[in-house]
Amino acid sequence: MLKYIIIGVICCLALEANATTVLLSDYKAPKNEEFKAFNELYLTGVMEGLLTFNAKLATDGKSKLFCLPPKREVTTQQAAEIMMHQAKDVPDADNYPISILLLAGLTDTFRCEEQTRGVVRPGVEPGEQQPRQAIHRKHRGDTSKQPTGHPRKARP
Question: Which of 65, 84, 122, 141 has a CA 20 to 30 Å removed from the CA of 106?
Answer without folding.
Answer: 141
